[in-house]
Structures are given as structure tokens and as C-alpha cells.
Design brief:
CATH architecture of the largest domain: 2-Layer Sandwich
Bound molecules: 2,5-anhydro-1,6-di-O-phosphono-D-mannitol, magnesium ion
Shape: globular
Number of domains: 2
Number of helices: 8
Helix content: 25-40%
Largest sheet: 8 strands, mixed
Number of strands: 15
CATH topology of the largest domain: Fructose-1,6-Bisphosphatase, Chain A, domain 1
Strand content: 15-25%
CATH class of the largest domain: Alpha Beta
Order of helices and strands: HHEEHEEEEHEEEEEHEHEHEEH
Length: about 350
């Protein structure tokens, strides 16, 4: 059988032995995410048809309007994981607190926690632009058999055992890593099967795309302003192309295929940046590094940051290795020139 004909189910079975902790639980988690992704994909594709677009009337912990599809996706992913009794805890960008999951016999014997952004880029739903799901899997720190605690979730990204995203775009794709490279699977909606379409995905070392919300230019740190000017200068391979969808998953996915850098730095109106370390930065950083790219907060490796709160934010610079290094140089130079 040709490589691209392999289904995600087959791929999971084939690779189970290579997983760090090969008890089959991690495979079952990926399988659950695969199922939930199909359900959400179906709903997202109908967003304009059914009465599901628009605000649900609630606000999430960050005080942002929740869209109905956010609420729906949140329920689907959480319920799928709970029903299959394969995780001991779940934290979601849409929920204030983490969820403790116990077995039907009230036990706490599972060893993984999942952190999830069920529908990222949700401001794009109403305008028919790509959105995504981002997930991150950790081994619990607390002893098996006891209920999970906050410390099981507040782990640095380097402890992730798996991470991935689903992009609901022109087609739906599931892209994930378990620490042995990154593979992408495309959904054939006619039969509801994901096929391996992008084996061993790699960020090109260099690129010519920069992705940032340039409307925030006045609020950017000097290093980001300098880097953007550098991107725009006519010299060598520059000026670069500016591409920004406003859906993290879509911007990262494009840049991973074509070569580029995504920047959501601190801005004066958001001194810690906008993106959430646990639900957005860490999983995307794991994918990026596994694909030969780089992810930093401009001075530190994202995956080495020790989180202190579930919903904490971090500045995020992620993409082609050399491009992230370049913007880090600009950040450092600007910082040093202050003194
Ligand atoms: P969300 O979790 O509320 O959807 O916000 C995260 C999104 C990212 O997908 C995207 O890159 C960024 O916010 C866009 O923010 P902005 O509109 O400020 O450029
Ligand atoms: Mg989000």
C-alpha cells in the first residue's frame, strides 16, 4: 500500500509501540480526538446553514464572547474524552477550572491529562475562515489512584507526550506529534476517514512569510518593530510577504508548509501577550520543534517556561528556525540598547 493511503487508525496502531509509555492509553486519546474532530468538523462545515453561528451569550474566563461553536466544540471534546474513560483530567481554554475525570467505578487510575483549546480563532467562524482545535497531553505528576490536582496541569511544555491541532480549512486536517516527528492526516468527509497526507512535516529552515497583527504596530516592542522593518526592506530575498489570518492554527499550518514566522508579542495593551501558554503556545511549540522549527517568547524557549496559572499568557514567536532566531536577535538588540 502506498504511504499516502494509510489511515490515521492504521498509523496509530503501527506506531503505538514507538510511544514513550506504550500501554495503548495514548493511542486511545488520539483516537478520541480523531472522533471529536470529525464531529466538530461536520458542525463547522454547516456553520452557515444551521442556527449555530453567533454569540452564545456567555463569556469565558478571559472575558471574551464565546461563540456557539466554541461551546459546542468544548462539549464534544470534553465529553468524548470523559465517556471513553481514558484521561484523569481535562483543562480547557473555555473553562475556568480544570475537570477531574473519574472512572465509572469512581477510580482515578488513568495517567494522562489533556489540555485543549477546542475552537481557536473563533472570531473567524462567522466569516467562513479557518478555525482550529489545539491539544496537549501530559502524564500526570500526582500518584495514579488519586484525583488530579493543579500541578498535573502546570507542567512545562517539555513534559508533553503528545500535542496536535485540527485545522478546519478547505479540508479538515489533524496534525500531531508524539515526539517522533509530525504527521498530518486529511479527512475524507465522504467516508469520515483521516488519511496520512503529510508524512514527516518539516518547517523549511528559512521562509519569506511573516504573520502578525500589524494593526498593533504602535504597541509592539521595539525589537518587533525593527524586525518588521527588516522584513519590508528590499534586500537579498526581501521584502517578505505578510500573511495573517488571525487563526493561530491556520497561520502556523501555512508557515510550516511554506516557511514563515508567526509573532504575537507582548503589546502595550497586553503586556503578557495574548496567547495562552498551556492551550496554544506549548502544543504548537512542541509541533514546531518536532518539525525542525523553533518557538520562543523572544528570550526563552516556550517549552521550558514553568507555568504558574492555568490560563496564563505568553508572547509567542514561532516558525522557521532561522526566522525565529532573527527576530530573537532583534529583540535582544533592542533590549540591550535600552541600557
Ligand atoms: P482565541 O483563543 O480567542 O480564538 O484567540 C486566539 C487567536 C489566535 O488564533 C490568533 O492568532 C489570535 O488570537 C488573533 O488575535 P488578534 O485578533 O488580536 O490578532
Ligand atoms: Mg484560543
Amino acid at each position: 500500500m502506498k504511504e499516502h493511503n494509510k489511515t490515521l487508525g492504521e498509523f496509530i496502531i503501527e506506531n503505538q509501540a514507538a510511544f514513550k509509555y506504550s500501554s495503548g492509553e495514548l493511542s486511545r486519546i488520539i483516537n478520541s480526538i480523531r472522533l471529536a474532530a470529525k464531529v466538530v468538523s461536520y458542525k463547522v462545515s454547516k456553520a452557515g446553514l444551521v442556527d449555530i453561528i453567533g454569540a452564545a451569550g456567555a463569556q469565558n474566563i478571559q472575558g471574551e464572547d464565546q461563540q456557539k461553536l466554541d461551546v459546542y466544540a468544548n462539549e464534544v471534546f470534553i465529553q468524548t474524552l470523559i465517556n471513553r474513560e481514558i484521561v484523569c483530567g481535562i483543562a480547557s481554554e473555555e473553562n475556568d477550572e480544570f475537570i477531574t475525570v473519574e472512572g465509572s467505578d469512581k477510580s482515578h487510575n488513568n495517567k494522562y491529562v489533556v489540555l485543549i483549546d477546542p475552537l481557536d480563532g473563533s472570531s473567524n467562524i462567522d466569516v467562513n475562515v479557518s478555525v482550529g482545535t489545539i491539544f496537549s497531553v501530559f502524564r500526570r505528576i500526582t500518584p495514579i489512584g488519586t484525583p488530579v490536582t493543579l500541578e498535573d496541569f502546570l507542567q512545562p511544555g517539555i513534559n508533553q507526550v503528545a500535542a496536535g491541532y485540527v485545522i478546519y480549512g478547505t479540508s479538515t486536517m489533524l496534525v500531531y506529534t508524539t515526539g517522533c516527528g509530525v504527521n498530518g492526516f486529511t479527512l475524507n468527509p465522504a467516508i469520515g476517514t483521516f488519511y496520512l497526507s503529510h508524512p514527516n512535516m518539516q518547517f523549511p529552515k528559512d521562509g519569506n512569510i511573516y504573520s502578525t497583527n500589524e494593526g498593533n504596530y504602535a504597541y509592539f516592542p521595539q525589537g518587533v518593530k525593527d524586525y518588521i522593518k527588516y522584513c519590508q526592506v528590499e534586500e537579498d530575498e526581501r521584502p517578505y510577504t505578510s500573511r495573517y489570518i488571525g487563526s493561530l492554527v491556520a497561520d502556523i499550518h501555512r508557515n510550516m508548509i511554506k516557511g514563515g514566522v508567526y509573532i504575537y508579542s507582548t503589546i502595550t495593551t497586553a503586556p503578557k501577550g495574548k496567547l495562552r501558554l498551556l492551550y496554544e503556545c506549548n502544543p504548537i511549540a512542541f509541533i514546531a520543534e518536532q518539525a525542525g522549527g523553533k518557538a520562543s517568547d523572544s528570550f526563552n524557549r516556550i517549552m521550558e517556561i514553568i507555568p504558574t496559572e492555568l490560563h496564563e499568557r505568553a508572547p509567542f514567536f514561532c516558525g522557521s528556525y532561522n526566522m525565529v532566531e532573527k527576530v530573537e536577535d532583534f529583540m535582544l538588540k533592542a533590549k540591550l540598547s535600552k541600557y
